[in-house]
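Task 17 of the worksheet. Students: predict the tertiary structure of the chain below and write it out as structure tokens. Keep your answer in the requested format; marks are given for formatting as well as content.
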Amino acid sequence: MSGLGPAFSNSTLAREAAATLGIVTVTQQTFTRSGSNLTLNGPLVPAFDQSTIPYYNLYFGDTWHLKPSITLTYGLGWALEMPPVEATGKQVVLVDANANPIDTATYLAKRQAAALQGRCTTPKLALR
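Model answer:
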């Protein structure tokens, strides 16, 4: 596409044409971090986490034939899913700009209060 001139190669039309034709014009690389201070790793260092989600499920069911033409089927189920646990202790927590954990109910209440006043709040959030 660059053979069509500099005006075309920098235009929105050129970007749209490239996207339509499936031409990769912008590349990306993801870097991982490690350690408690989140030190940036070098290129191509893989991210690895081993999380376990304790899950317990119990189900009881039965079928009772009241008559040959009437069948009653019933059951009772119970499930418990615990929060995930990472094997090496690398838990992720949503924090604010001061590294304080975010309480979901408080965060949503603040957003609602701002919205009711016609303000938009976009606090800085991070994962730690």
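Marker's comment: Helices lie at 6-9, 12-21, 104-116. The mean pLDDT is 83.
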